[in-house]
Amino acid sequence: MFLRNHWYAAGFPDEIGRTLLARTLLGEDVLFYRRADGAPVALENRCAHRRLPLSMGALVGDAVQCGYHGLEYDHTGACIKIPGQHGVPNVRLRAYPLVERHRYLWIWMGDPALADPSLIPDFSRLDAPDVGVTRIQLKPDCHVQLVIDNLLDLSHLAYVHNTTTGNAALAEDAEVRTERRGDVVQVKRWVRNVVPAPTFVQFGGYNGRVNLWQVSEFRPPSYVRVSYGSAPADQPTPDGDDIWSHGHWGFAVFHGLTPESARATHQFRHVAHAHGLGDAQVTAEFYRQCDQIIREDLAIFAVQQRALDAEAGEAPPSAVNARVAIHADGGLLQARLINERLMREQARG
Amino acid sequence: MSDKFVTDAWYVAAWSDELGPDRPLARIVLERPVVLYRRRDGSPVALEDRCIHRRLPLSLGRVAGDGIECGYHGLVFGADGRCRAVPGQPVVPAEARVRAYPTVERQRCIWIWTGDPARADPATIRDFPWLEAPGWGLVKLHARVPCHYQLIIDNLLDLSHLAYVHASTVGSRELAEQARVRTERLPDGVRVSRWTLDVPPAQTYLQFGRYAGNIDRWQISEFRTPCTFVIDNGSALAGTGAPEGAPGAQRWGFMVCHGITPETERTTNYFWALAHAFGADDPDGVAEFHRQSLQVIGEDIAVFEAQQRMIDLDPAAPTIDIGYDAGPLQARRLIDRLLAQQNAAPQRASA
Amino acid sequence: MFLRNQWYVAAFDDEVRRTPLARTVLGEELILFRRLDGGTVALENRCAHRRLPLSAGRLVGDTIECGYHGLVYDCSGRCIKIPGQAHGPEAPVVRAYPVVERHRFVYVWIGDPELADTARIVSFPRLSDPASGVTKVRLHVPANHLLILDNLLDLSHIAYVHNSTIGNAAVAEQAEVKTRRIGQHVRVTREMNGVPAPSTYAQFGPHQGIFDRWQLSEFRPPGFFWINNGSAACGWRRADGGDRIETQGEWGFEVYHGITPETATTTHQFWTLAHALDMVRPDDRAEFYRQCHHVVYEDLAVYEAQQRSLDTDPAGASADEVGSRIAIEADRALLQGRQVLKELMRANHPTQPPIPHEARP
């Protein structure tokens, strides 16, 4: 049901420390903590003895002690102590490879031997010293595919986010180009000589018409980064790789999307913007709007998932075919095909 | 129909004080909906909680003399389950009856038999004399726990868990690391005896046993199939002869009686009662002791809920056994054997 | 499972407005709204594109705009605009349902639209008669619709379920009951002569002691009930010699139910009550209506408990089997009612299923 041999966003590094944190990822309950030297640990969150979640236990040095009968496990998942007996059975809980990078905790959910850190997506923009960053963590009540769909068709801004970053022009007057290179899908959009949406007016400081450009990029299994740029209407619009620039004003968004189950998704999102947004109050208002936007999408996802459940039962969203595909769907349909192919390859082993 | 529970047994359906004089009480026992009420003379009745006519639970009706009147169309059923009257017609259809379950009230408990009524012998009801012993204090609880009943049996036959789950009250490390444990088969159950010698007292024992030094401590857990426990918890000053059978110096302790009654495969009605002989002269102390005891049972219930959640997430996940599991495993084998015998027997009176 | 090719009440007239209303009827999800000229529209509540319910969108004139990507549909269900593209593939379509508004009810045809015949609508003109006082309630009942049919065709239950208002023992024990099938209707009448007046009748009617009382309950498929309640002094007869059973006599009221299945375990109940204006003084109406509403809620508690009883039956019982083990005399009418529904289901030719969910060319 899930693509396993991939890195997934498990959370933000400052969420884990010397206490036990439990989180369900890809249908598996995972335990997180840090050893005394700060190294992060991820283990199967279930005592091998009587299945109590280890997160209900305690840290004893670098080991986790089960809160039921006191069995202890080290960071490799090996059982190292059973109270009241000398022998320890050859029991090892699953340990997940874990890497901290680009303000995310990345966890490898598949065969540990295949865990290659170079496959972690390049969100290095988040490490740049000259950016301001805000983040949020949400759990949309929907299959991860619906979130990917949403991020690859930004025409929805015109209807869902029309008090902030969207207006009708974005849907009706956009030039849209979908490009695929290997397993990477990019959807590029340009609108020229239009009235800017409220957020752009407020923070871009525009008086008249503008050119806007957006790019959404998908990489399997579920990494999405989005960039927005804008400039006064008399200036040229970028093409090629320059579409990632922000022009006069813009920002970038990074999504780490990790299924919790077939019907719920962890969404770990960062927004990065060049410094110089203004004073603290202005920045706070921009961040507030970014959070409002993502919450508006949340409402859509919940309603969509309920509708799909009523029709499809246990089948995944892709099994419920739309009765129509519109031009704007080009990118998300490509993304679906890529993930479906990867699932078939995984099934074949 | 193959049963998941041992039905030829007495189970606790309710505490006596849960059943008032003229209000029916609804409860699900071994997946069977049951309505309990009292006759005019106070004796309890248990019937199938489902009117034979339009299936409204009889517990939504009202007690009428020694019978119960359905709240929908007024059919009246007697204590034997037979319909006595149908409003508006003189003839009562012969098939108009609901199942009646043998019921016995004893020692603050209302016991029910859901199996073949011909085999219901009150002499086999578990004896809980401490619940009515003169001069003994009592604290008790009925909890509807979202877990399979097996998890509770496992817990009560491996009392090493006190060291971790109840570390702030009745548990101490030594109970897990230094106990001497003996597991014995009984004719119809398992007894696990644990002795932990010459150890510092756990918080509750220190506070109410008032020990200045180390203690010898015992935990004797006696399980009878399918679902009752008596657990003897006690301590005495270390080295004063308690393990050898002598009374010992500064003896302190309490008895706990458990009735574990399956509701469904995922929920259980848990009846827990703790009786103690000390404290008649110290009501404030007793109140604090009761509070700590209720905290202990609350900690266990949190464990059961979490385990059941994990089982539901992945029922096939493997488990291992450790040394202390001898008792719980014996209990499981005994119950499995009873179930196998029960399901192999030819079909009996309708369940 | 349900009787299709019928008109069902989807809403009261005042529920359908210029903001979209989402409602599920016989398992089909509908969106209802009013056109600018006041007419009613019922469409399938699903955008053809990404399946978002259209009720999450907004009305623009007489069209509905999906709240996700802005596709716009007209009242016939045809998509007339897709933002950002001039000509798309053949226009997508959502299903449009025949809809009729009549006497306070908004009816929707569930089944093959070609067979929709407005002559088959079951309506109650008294509900829009200015000479009648009317009160109404919509209930969402967590139970299968057959349990409501059982209840309304055996009014002896009033003696037990509603004994603080309109019922007392006499209703169950002293009634002369007659059951009759008239075509596809089932009518059961109960005459109770020389019985004590129950609380509500004594409070609002002219008789406080012993009186005559009668009830008529008539089922009209697929899910409509006409219940006439009348009372008068002992021995009272109509001046013209006609049967008093269809009138209210000296004091009474009529109740009309529109019962619409939502799913196999939930039902919409549209309950209405009409009375002659001079039978309940204006100052008394609030309390009289409150007591009558209370009756409906008492029944709701019964339905909920019955459905739970079925849902927890290890043998997997359904509402079809309720009462399969015994029948009492009072069950005669409801058994006939269930029989009528079965006959109609069998006679129903298989219709087109809802539009299948494949991509259209």
Structural class by secondary-structure content of chain B: alpha+beta
Give me the count of strands of chain C.
Answer: 17
CATH topology category name of the largest domain in chain C:
Naphthalene 1,2-dioxygenase Alpha Subunit, Chain A, domain 1
**Spans of chain B with pLDDT under 50 lasting ≥5 residues?**
none
* Anisotropy-based shape of chain C: globular
The rounded distance between the terminal residues' Cα atoms of chain B is: 9 Å
Strand content of chain B: 25-35%
Number of domains of chain B: 2
**Roughly what percent helix of chain B?**
10-25%
The CATH architecture classification of the largest domain in chain C is: Alpha-Beta Complex
How would you portray this structure in words?
The complex is a heterotrimer of chains A (349), B (351) and C (361). Chain A has 349 residues and is α+β, with helices and mostly antiparallel strands. The model of chain A has no long low-confidence stretch (mean pLDDT 92). Chain A has helices at 144-152, 157-160, 168-172, 198-204, 280-312, 330-348, and strands at 7-11, 21-25, 28-34, 40-44, 58-60, 63-65, 72-73, 79-81, 98-101, 104-108, 131-138, 175-181, 184-194, 210-219, 223-232, 249-261, 264-274. Chain A has a seven-stranded antiparallel β-sheet with strand order 11-17-16-15-14-13-12, with helices on one face. A four-stranded antiparallel β-sheet of chain A has the order 5-6-7-8, with no helix packed on it. Chain B is built from six helices and 18 strands. In chain B, the strands form four sheets. In chain B, strands 12-18-17-16-15-14-13 form a seven-stranded antiparallel β-sheet, with helices on one face. In chain B, strands 2-3-4-9 form a four-stranded antiparallel β-sheet, with no helix packed on it. Chain C is an alpha+beta fold and 361 residues long. Chain C folds into two domains: 6-120, Rieske [2Fe-2S] iron-sulphur domain (Rieske Iron-sulfur Protein, 3-layer Sandwich); 125-346, Naphthalene 1,2-dioxygenase Alpha Subunit, Chain A, domain 1 (Alpha-Beta Complex), CATH 3.90.380.10. Chain C contains six helices and 17 strands. Chain C has helices at residues 145-152, 158-161, 169-173, 199-204, 282-311, 332-347; strands at residues 6-12, 21-25, 28-34, 40-44, 58-60, 63-65, 72-73, 79-81, 99-102, 105-110, 132-141, 176-182, 185-196, 210-220, 224-232, 251-263, 266-276. In chain C, helix 1 crosses helix 6 (332-347). Chain C is globular and about 80 Å long. The relative contact order of chain C is 0.15. Chains A and C meet through helix 2, helix 3 and helix 5 of A and loops of C.
